[in-house]
């Protein structure tokens, strides 16, 4: 597998693809590595797209993981602005949008996710903004700088970060979330309620529990009719209703794919022994929880990408990461690790002051934690979550008791 004549092809030059390429080299892969990406620019960080890039001109130039010479020095052939449109398992070759064919011995699919779209608000329509790539962020920043009323469809992480960026410009902002609360998948009810209030304090109109019924447009203004009969008018409509795994190539190859992504084992191997999948596109086996899962966050894409690259060369342990995410909204840095939805929650710290952790417990076992502006406590909690530690809830809630001393 690691001979110098071996050819590795990685489809998708995002975070997982980048880490996979370097993981291969770090583990001693001596063959050629082609990193093929549909976007015209080299791999870059997406989290700043809804944070610093929406705020500051020039921030978009600071988001690249590495320089071009870093890839050249590692012998990684960057093939950018190219989409892999077809592939053959039998011939072990890829067909690229430019008409080129590329042969491989080992193939990694790191194709990430594509945006879920709202039919009545198509991506690319004037005044409608989605947020997945660098070009999306630049277009939205230009629109926010020009000003107007803003409607955000979807109260998830990306929509709320965009709402905060708009509110920071003193634009009128309405967030429309059909569920009864914001960030339904990413955080628990306590943090959601606290964050809702933080947005309201910034002047954002938070409309939870109402969906979008229909959309019309008169001149520059969109008229969003909501399911409760109310109307929201906006010149700028930001849609953040989630993503789906980009599995189209895997499906063409006939690999085992489920709605959660491409099914892979603890080393990233798909149902075909010469094809691997890494990052957000993979429905991967995690030995820590002894089941398959899909993760949509930076930490996972980085860790899984590297793990798969290394596993191709040296078959080590199964993937076992405990991941989490962070979001920055206003002066709030929210970090979460493990599972945010559990049987009950324990709060530690000062919620009105905006420095607290919510621990998530099943019975007396800590399964997750969400911290607002308290990075160090979250780090301590991570070790307990990883070990499935049993906790005394009363001690955990007491800031005078060290987190490590709250175990049973
Ligand atoms: C705006 C934004 C903000 C975010 N903020 C945070 C945050 O604060 N915290 C956090 O934890 N996570 C955040 N995330 C999520 C995190 O960035 C993703 O989980 C991570 O980027 C996933 O990496 P990936 O490499 O698996 O997939 P992707 O980043 O989706 O990369 C996949 C790449 O593959 C390419 N591709 C797909 N199909 C083909 C093909 N057939 N041929 C060639 N190329 C192809 C795509 O163009 C894309 O460049 C954010 C994401 C976005 C979009």
What would you note in describing this structure?
- The chain has ten helices and 27 strands.
- It has 408 residues and is an alpha/beta fold.
- The chain folds into three domains: 178 residues, FAD/NAD(P)-binding domain (3-Layer(bba) Sandwich), CATH 3.50.50; 123 residues, 3-Layer(bba) Sandwich (FAD/NAD(P)-binding domain); 76 residues, Enolase-like, domain 1 (2-Layer Sandwich), CATH 3.30.390.30.
- The longest helix has 16 residues.
- The radius of gyration is 22 Å and the shape is globular.
- Bound molecules: flavin-adenine dinucleotide.
- The site of flavin-adenine dinucleotide has 36 residues, from α1, β2, α8 and β23.
Tags for this entry?
FAD/NAD(P)-binding domain; 31% strand; 408 residues; 5-stranded parallel sheet; alpha/beta; binds flavin-adenine dinucleotide; Enolase-like, domain 1; 3 domains; 27 strands; 10 helices
CATH topology of the largest domain: the name is FAD/NAD(P)-binding domain
Classification by helices and strands = alpha/beta
| CATH architecture name of the largest domain | 3-Layer(bba) Sandwich
Ions, cofactors and other bound molecules? flavin-adenine dinucleotide
How many strands appear in the DSSP assignment? 27
Radius of gyration: 22 Å
Q: Return residue spans where pLDDT drops below 50 for at least 5 consecutive residues.
A: none
Strand order of the largest sheet: 3-2-1-7-20
CATH domain class name of the largest domain: Alpha Beta
Biggest sheet statistics: 5 strands, parallel
In angstroms, what separates the terminal alpha carbons?
48 Å
Average pLDDT figure:
95
The residue fraction in helices comes out at 10-25%
CATH superfamily of the largest domain: FAD/NAD(P)-binding domain
Global shape: globular
Tally of DSSP helical segments: 10
Structural domains: how many:
3
Strand content: 25-35%
């Amino acid at each position: 597998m690691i001979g110098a004549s071996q050819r590795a092809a990685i489809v998708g030059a995002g975070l997982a693809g980048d880490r996979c390429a370097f993981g291969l080299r770090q583990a001693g892969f001596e063959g050629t590595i082609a990193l093929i990406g549909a976007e015209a620019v080299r791999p870059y960080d997406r989290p700043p797209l809804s944070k610093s890039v929406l705020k500051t001109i020039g921030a978009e130039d600071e988001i690249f993981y590495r320089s071009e010479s870093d890839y050249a020095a590692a012998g990684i052939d960057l093939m950018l602005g190219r989409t892999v449109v077809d592939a053959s398992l039998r011939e072990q070759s890829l067909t690229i949008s430019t008409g080129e064919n590329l042969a491989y011995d080992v193939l990694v699919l790191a194709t990430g996710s594509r945006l879920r779209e709202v039919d009545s608000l198509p991506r690319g329509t004037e005044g409608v903004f989605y947020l997945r790539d660098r070009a999306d962020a630049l277009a939205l920043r230009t629109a926010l700088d020009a000003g107007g009323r803003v409607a955000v469809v979807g109260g998830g992480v990306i929509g709320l970060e965009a709402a905060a960026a708009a509110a920071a410009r003193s634009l009128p902002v309405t967030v429309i979330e059909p569920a009864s609360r914001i960030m339904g998948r990413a955080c628990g009810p306590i943090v959601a309620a606290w964050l809702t209030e933080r947005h309201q304090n910034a002047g954002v109109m938070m409309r939870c529990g109402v969906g979008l019924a229909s959309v019309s447009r008169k001149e520059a203004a969109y008229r969003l009719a909501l399911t409760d009969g109310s109307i929201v008018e906006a010149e700028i409509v930001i849609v953040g209703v989630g993503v789906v795994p980009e599995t189209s190539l895997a499906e063409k190859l006939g690999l085992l794919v489920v709605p959660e992504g491409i099914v892979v084992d603890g080393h990233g191997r798909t149902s075909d022994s010469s094809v691997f999948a890494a990052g957000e596109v993979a429905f991967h086996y995690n030995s820590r929880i002894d089941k398959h899962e899909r993760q949509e966050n930076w930490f996972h894409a980085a860790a899984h990408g590297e793990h798969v690259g290394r596993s191709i060369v040296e078959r080590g342990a199964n993937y076992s990461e405990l991941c989490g995410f962070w979001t920055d909204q206003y002066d709030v840095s929210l970090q979460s690790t493990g599972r945010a939805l559990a049987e009950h929650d324990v709060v530690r710290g000062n919620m009105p002051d905006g420095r607290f952790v919510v621990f998530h417990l099943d019975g007396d076992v800590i399964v997750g934690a969400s911290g607002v502006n308290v990075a160090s406590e979250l780090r301590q909690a991570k070790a307990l979550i990883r070990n499935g530690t049993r906790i005394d809830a009363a001690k955990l809630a007491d800031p005078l008791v060290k987190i490590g001393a709250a175990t049973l």
